[in-house]
Amino acid sequence: MSYNEQLNTSKRVLMGPGPSDVHPRVLQAMSTPLIGHLDPEFVQIMDEVKLMVQHTFQTVNYLTFVVSAPGSAGMETCLVNLLEPGDEAVICIHGVFGGRMADIAERCGATVHRIEAPWGEPIDPVQVKKVLENCDPKLVAIVHAETSTGVLQPLDEIGKITKDAGALFVVDAVTSYCGVPVKVDEWGIDAIYSGTQKCLSAPPGLSPVSFSDRAVAAMDFRKTKVQSWFLDLSMIKNYWSGAKRAYHHTAPVSSIFALREAYRIVLEEGLENRFERHYRNHQLLKDELEPLGFEFIVQPKYRLPMLNAVKLPEGINEAEVRRKLLDDYNIEVGGGLGAFAGKIWRVGLMGESSSPNHVHMLSAALKKLI
Ligand SMILES: *Cc1c(COP(=O)(O)O)cnc(C)c1O
After folding, report:
1. Whose CA, among 25, 91, 133, 296, lies 20 to 30 Å from 115?
2. pLDDT tens across 22-65, in order?
3. Do residues 40 and 170 share a domain?
4. Ligand 1 atom having least distance to the Cα of 73
């Protein structure tokens, strides 16, 4: 390909850690002719999207909207608005993304207390309790679905411990959202962010977020300005809500069109049905891959249905087989990240990519390749 030729990418089957496959209805919505981002019709679309974000996060939080940037920017939005220089933050790290949160919190000038778990295991609430007895943090942050390890982190107990300690509970739901239950109000979550390219099956580049009244109060009590102009919620909130919408930045209009359609598809299916489908196809993948010699690295109790971390059969060159899957079968699976690089695969069954056809395409190809 060169720049004087029309784009002509291959038709891939997306079974990695995101982006996932996107429904044609979503792509069609994205090609809707542009309207202005302050057009009353677009303001109404923003309001509709906000309602759908609330519904899927299972929250009534007023400050619920979509950050115009990917999941990592949602992460940064939560941390830069809640942390000020001199604050303490407890960050739970059981994979790559917890480490990223600790990095951001330090850049905010916070003193970070790290709680770590071995890769492939969840964080132990007992450990969180112990650390909270010896410090006075503004917040405790944790990843719900650790995409680098395939671990589903139970949140109820840690949420309760955090609340008892008077800290805010911050959750990364980038991969879990719309694939397993995420109950913001019931679980006492104060700040949460997700992404669009995982189980929501919209194009990448946006981050749904929500903040409790306690989190909003903490922001109102800040003594210093938020270090990031673009992510400062005291300004963005007047763009996404309120009677008079004030220009802040130009929303990615086409991406919001696509997101609206992706949400409509989620709500048509129903959250419970969607969770059940993700679980069913995960079981099917397990039934197909284990006889081929693949081993799931996470204990059954903590396995993510949408992100399957598997060790390859002995003696197989993982990078070579992964490349052949892409070149010969147009199937993308993910390699390992961080400590797991070169050691595991991450097979994504997210949103539109969570289907029996996807599982069977992969297992049929693997039977030819290994
Ligand atoms: C993908 C992911 C992110 C980052 O999202 P981007 O859209 O790539 O910025 C953050 N946390 C988790 C758990 C993820 O899986």
Report:
1. 296
2. 999 999 999 999 999 999 999 999 999 999 999 999 999 999 99
3. yes
4. 9
